[in-house]
Amino acid sequence: MRYSFQQGRGLLLATLMVSFGLTMPVAQAQDDTSCPHGDLDPMYCDQDGDLVADPPDESELVNPDTLIFAYTPVEDPAIYADIWQPFIDHIKEVTGKDVRFFAVQSNSAQVEAMRSGRLHIAGFSTGPTPFAVNLAGAVPFALMGSDDGRFGYTLQVFTQADSDIQSLADLKGKRVAHTSPTSNSGNQAPRALFPDEGVVPDEDYEVLYSGSHDQSMLGVVAGDYDAAPVASEVVERMAARDLYDEDSVRMIFESEPFPTTSYTYAHDLDPQLVESIKEAFFSFDFAGTALGEEFEGVEKFIPITYKDQWQVIRTIQSANGVRYTPDNLEE
């Protein structure tokens, strides 16, 4: 049945206002012989070993009249609704479906929405992607990249331009903004990588969660934090929009590249619909669109797999003792 955007939004909001235990389908216990699932929630199976949920039985496949798309939580969702509109229109044209943009307020809300069946296509941030895969049946299939197939971002650490902090070791005794527990560059990668650089988060410096990369960076500019690890792609977009004075900060560390936002579909979508969604992504032309202007240097969506491109992220999260549970996602 086709429902209006307001009705769909209401259903989503209702879903996001209640807990996992009340909104999520009850996982049925299944033995690993008939339904191997690895780190996946027991409600999903992974017969082919690709680490993502297999499609359900044909009778359980869904083919909604209205597709709901959500991008990762950002500081100003209204701006991104406009930025994504050319792409939304392209998906409509290719799939023949009505497509609506839904602005999520947190990583956990975004994962909950897909798990509950109210979110069909989504861009999940790097760190939360494994939670979306394992808790919500998200299937990553694309990243933004260049024509030659390159993609990725780095963890960068910034401090004030006139700060006496020259290296990570100088963070000892300081107040450092991390973004959120599930963020890769904003929390998990620093916890895995910084000890080799001579500083241990929470032991050598005080960790203060800002809530987002934007807030971390603006907090450094304002002097609320002594330093902050942030994602290079976010910093670049903020600078392009003149959200802070680049001369007011100084970078003291940069990591090797990580994969960027994963673009995913819900595992229970009809396979023919999935193919048309993929076609929409891989045929979209960024040139001359608001999306292309926002994501400078991005020229197309490129195909990826969760098993391959997220291996480094799973390694980092394993080093942090991360378990893919609703409680860990919400912390």
TrEMBL record:
The alphabetized list of GO BP terms reads: transmembrane transport
Residue ranges with Polar residues bias: 179-188
Q: Does the keyword Signal apply?
A: yes
Any one Gene Ontology cellular component term annotated for this protein: ATP-binding cassette (ABC) transporter complex
Q: Which InterPro entries match?
A: PhnD
Q: Where is this region: Disordered?
A: 176-195
> Residues of the signal sequence?
1-29
Keywords attached to this Swiss-Prot or TrEMBL record, sorted alphabetically, are: Signal
Write down a Pfam family by its short name.
Phosphonate-bd
Is Signal among the key words of this record? yes
Q: Which family does it belong to?
A: Belongs to the phosphate/phosphite/phosphonate binding protein family.
Question: Which NCBIfam families does the record match to this protein?
Answer: 3A0109s03R (TIGR01098)
Name of the protein? Phosphonate transport system substrate-binding protein
Name its species: Halomonas cupida
